[in-house]
Amino acid sequence: MPLAAIADREVSVDAEGFMTEYDEWDEALAPKLAENIGLGVLTEDHWKVIHFLRSDFAENGETPTLRRVATVGAIPTKELFGLFPKKPARKMAYVAGLPKPVGCI
Amino acid sequence: MQRILILGAGTAGTMAANLLRKELSDTYEITIVDEDEIHYYQPGFLFLPFGTYEPSDVMRTTREFLHKGIRYINESVLELSPADDIVKLGDGTVLEYDHLIIATGTHPTPSATPGLESDEYGKTVHDFYTFDGAIALKDALDKFTEGRLVVNLIEMPIKCPVAPLEFTFLAEARFTDLGIRDKVEIVYVTPMSNVFTKPVASEHLGDMFDRRGIKLEPDFYLERVDAEGKKLISYDEREVSYDLLVTVPINMGASFVGKAGIGDELNHVKVDPLNFQSAEFPNIFALGDAANLPASKAGSVAHFAMDTFIPNFANYLMGQPMTHEFDGHANCYIETGHEKALLIDFNYKTQPLRGKYPVPGIGPFSLLEESGVNHLGKLAFRWMYWHLLLPGRHMPVSSEMSMAGKEVVVE
Could you tell me which chain A residue has the CA closest to the CA of B153? Predict the structure, then answer.
């Protein structure tokens, strides 16, 4: 796995820059990751999504889908598109330091 | 007498019933419930719109595959009370069980998308994941001589996740053969960021759409369908118009799963991906598409899973630990048109790689490569399904994924 320097440290990432080690992420990294993909300042609403993603991943071992964030996390999909424009599934996973959502092939 | 109740007599339920009947003594009663008296060969639905298969090619009776000593009840499942070990059927019958296996699959659910279910369904809007849908689509394709064909995968997970690609390739090949390719525009609309998302597949197959002149609309998360205006509208307010829409509706598990509180947000049963047991109710297992495994929802996965499930379940019945672990192995042919196909082989941990299958270095099938032999393999599989797989006979391939003969990539 390649390493990337984010903020003040080196973390493991995949070819597209998604962090691959759950425990290498902490809250101090999120603003820097957000900046990398042009998100600007993280608001309370962003943090609500990030916290849900982190705890859901810890429980299930998988990056939750938009549907899961909407139904279990109670954050409507439309709102996710507002918070993480164009590619919410990828962007929220990136900022939360979780593997990117993928298909089977 | 201990009562084993299996819900669903599709691929996974039928295999489990037959294999358990062989494995277990008569002190175990096996009952299987399915509302459909017809057993469909679901992989064959893809070929119905193109006339490659006739309806009779994909239909058998549910009953004929169930071995002696298995009680079959032709009824729907209404309700499951996991705390009371009780299942209520559509006709009001109440069944008590000691051990429950849920194999009720996953189903295209057009009603889960606003605007998708309308008077246009079956006219300008079609699906090919149901028997009726595939038959109606054949008529529509026969009449389609010009315009914009849109294939839309609405949301993952779906069963047979490669079938939307196969349909797109087969449609493209057909329009070419008919000499009308220049009059037809083909657009593939997907919530994924690309056609292929795994690195090796992406590298070797990434240009398949370009070479065929198929347009890609990626990152498209469908909010609603305007069936009258013939357009798809995404959450970020993009619009894609169509003349003929082939939709892959949201797939959902059985509603009794959701009501019983044992499912995820799409009613797929939450189970351990290594042994398919429910954590909350240890006498409940889920097999095949009904389970929320991080594997592909495909017949091959259900089939490979049997080799670990059956000995595990026998151990569980004896009160012993389940020592076998399922690796998530899947093996899928992907039709690419003009009598060729790709083959992919992967599991929970390893992405599809290049190589030969099932014999390393020899094949005859090529992994991640288009070939005529792969296409013949796909067609031959229908025979294996009816005659080997469903009856629970030995198949000439290993259920555990093998790395032998594969081109390994360093991740």
Answer: A103
- Is the Cβ of B410 closer than 8 Å to some Cβ of chain A? no
Predicted structure pTM score? 0.94
Closest CA to B285 of B8, B25, B36: B8
Judged on CB neighbours under 10 Å (0-12, 13-18, 19+), A38 is: exposed
Residue A105 pLDDT more than 70? no
**Nearest CA-CA distance, residue A98 and chain B, Å:** 16
Structure tokens that stand for B208 in this block: 């398949």
On whether the CB atoms of residues B319 and B99 are closer than 8 A, the answer is no
- Out of B235, B294, B352, name the one closest to residue A78 (CB): B235
Alpha-carbon gap: A31 to the closest alpha carbon of chain B (Å): 24
CATH of the domain spanning B110-248: 3.50.50.60
The CATH superfamily label for domain B2-108+252-317 reads FAD/NAD(P)-binding domain (3.50.50.60)
- Contact B266/A at CB under 8 A: yes
* Residue of B247, B331, B365 lying closest to A104 (CA atoms): B331
Per-residue pLDDT tens over the stretch B308-354: 999 999 999 999 999 999 999 999 999 999 999 999 999 988 889 99
Residue A103: its pLDDT value, please? 66
Q: What is the residue range of A7's domain?
A: 3-95
Whether residues B344 and A86 touch (CB distance < 8 A) is answered with no
Task: Enter the ipTM.
Answer: 0.87
Q: Which of B373, B345, B347, B369 is nearest to B358 (CA)?
A: B345
